[in-house]
Amino acid sequence: MQDEMLSYQWKEDTRISDRIELEQSKKLIAGYKPEFRCYRSLMLMNEAKKVLNLISIGDGVVIACGESKQDFYLAQVSSLYDTGESDGEMFATVIWYFKKEEIPKTKLPRRTFNNEVFLCTANAENVVDVETIINKCAIVYSESPVPINGESEESVSTYFYRKIFNGIKVSNYKPKAENKTSRRKTNGQQERASAKLDKNQTKKADPVITKTPLKSTENTKE
């Protein structure tokens, strides 16, 4: 299959203006400036401008980090924004997940699955150029293995996690219990987006993990 150049565009009418929702995005963006614009969704398109994927906050994504199809990172989008200019750069903040190939074999559990990933709780650069995003995926928490692919050809690959890796050791992931009585009520859309992100908020550990996606000019889809 020939390489296909991707183009990127914010989905119309998804710029965030709701005060509470905007404040949540601001907290995730280091060095936020008033002219920055935050969004809910990003369209990945081919050269003919056909939309291949719609990436929204909370979605899993595949991020290019090498020249071959097997060279990629996995992450979950926590915010989407640009610098405010008409031709300004477009960015995403992400939560990283390690594939088992990225973890030393001596640190891995005795039994792992091909589509099992590990939530990164080490310090890591979490801002990526959106042009390093080459596909969408699903990343779910599950104590039991889940199928990697959906039932249809259009379905995205599914990865599951049940453990974390802090750069030193692998340990069990403990989902946060939801406090229904104290949870602040917001509109339905913002509440669903928050639920996706709250599930994966973790404390940072000391080790620093370096993720190096491709530069935007190197990005192609195989």
UniProtKB/TrEMBL annotation:
Single GO MF annotation: chromatin binding
Biased composition (Basic and acidic residues): 193-206
Top-level taxonomic group: Eukaryota
InterPro entries, sorted: BAH_dom, BAH_sf
Domain BAH: 53-176
Region of interest: Disordered: 175-222
Pfam family name, one: BAH
Biased composition (Polar residues): 213-222
Name listed for the protein in its UniProt record: BAH domain-containing protein
Species for this entry: Ciona savignyi
